[in-house]
Every structure is written in structure tokens, then in C-alpha cells.
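Record type: monomer structure entry
Structure origin: computed from sequence
Chain ID: A
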Amino acid sequence: MVRLMNAIACLLFLSLSCQAHARNSAEVISASNPAGMVITLLNMGFNPELTTDPVGDPLIISRSNGGVFSVFFFGCNETTHDACQSIRLQVGYDRAKPWNPVEAMQLSAEYPFLAVRLDQEGDPFVHWDLYLGEGIPETVFVRNVRAFEKSVTLAAELVYAEEKADAAE
């Protein structure tokens, strides 16, 4: 009878462990599951579209009130383009005239998680890289996306400040 009770206790423990693991797995965001990331972005109010980049890796393009942002995937298997390890959240700004590189670097100083680069036309692109590995909690992913969203909205004010000042004159 004691063995039967121990066996039932073990089965109950395994069942609860499996349920807990299933709940935790559902709440993990990883670069190896772009479709799951799309669902999370949808739940956040974005309008994401899952596609592929020119080399075949996943790419998410999303439109929001702040414009268009992209999610690039890195560390993917070179042949199958899956098992990705990291992502880059990126927004590009289209200025009327090239932006001064010194001012672009001030943006990085003001928003330390944002990296800034200028394209050939002098338009700034800002990005936020996340290494996800085996995955991060969905709540952490959501906080990062919201922080990125806030940062790029505030960054837009700096990017377009000169143009707004010229228009006001």
C-alpha cells in the first residue's frame, strides 16, 4: 500500500511539473520561434507581418502609431534559417537632409540601449539588440519592446528637431 501511495505521489508530482513546464514554455519568447513573437506583438497592439529577409532568415515588419519597425533575426542556421539566437528591433527615420553624425551620436548618449547608424543618405537608423538564446520570459520581452517603442518615439523628436525648427520659422 505504501508503494502504491508513493507511486501515486510521484505521478502527481510529475503531472504538476509537466503542467508548470507547459505554462512556463508558453510564456517564453525566443528567436527560434518567430511565429510566437508575432502573436505577442499582436497582443501588444502592433500589426506585425512575418516574412523573410534577403538571405532567408525570418523578418518581422510591424506598423504602429510611431511608424514602421522591423525585427531582424540573427544567429540563425545558415541552411535552414531556423534556430535563431538573437533579434534586432530597428526603426529608420527619413530626414529631408542628412543628419550630422555628431548629433546622431548624441542620440546614443541620451538613450544608452539604442545604437545609431547613418545610411548612405545620412538618414538615421536606431536599433536595440536582444540576445534571446533559449528564450526569455514574455514579460521581459514585452518590457523591452515597450522601452524600445518609448525610446524611438522620444528619439524622433531629436531626429526631426532641426526640421521642425526650420518649418516654424
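Annotation 1: The longest strand covers residues 67-74.
Annotation 2: Residues 40 and 138 are 8 Å apart (CA to CA).
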